[in-house]
Amino acid sequence: MTRSDFMRAALNEAQKAYELGEVPIGAVIVKDGEIISKAYNRRETGKNALLHAETEAIFKACEKLGGWRLWECELYVTLEPCPMCAGAIVNARIPKVYFGAYDEKNGACGSSLNLFEMKNNFRPEYTGGILEEECSGLIKNFFTELRNKLSR
Question: b vs e for 56-94, b when ≥16 Cβ sit within 10 Å of the residue's Cβ?
Answer without folding.
Answer: bbbbbbbeebeeeebeebbbbbbbbbbebbbbbbbebeb
